[in-house]
Amino acid sequence: MTQRLYYDDPALLTFEAVIVSSVKQGDGWQTILDRSAFYPTSGGQMHDTGLLNGVLVTDVRETDNDEVVHVTAAPVGEPGGDVSGAVDPARRRKHRQTHTAQHILSAVFFRLYDLNTVSVHL
Question: What is the pTM of this model?
Fold first, then answer.
């Protein structure tokens, strides 16, 4: 299971980790790390982007067994190797603000009109 660093420090944008696995899949690479500050798409919030060892991270997903998968166009290293990660701060800030705003809006709809939010896509 990937240690999700953003739970302890949501402002963390850079980190060091070890590559657990790195597999070529389709046109890209799917890399799992022992720990990550990259937020995957979940709970209505979009994934982070940024860099792993200088390689652009284009997607971040979570697996059924709580692993965080970082999708890149090129490999970031070999399993067992070290990796430096950097989350795109502007994208992280934008998504955090939008996600929080949606929770506030949903609370207003519920309190004033007894309407529940079923689904949101921003």
Answer: 0.83
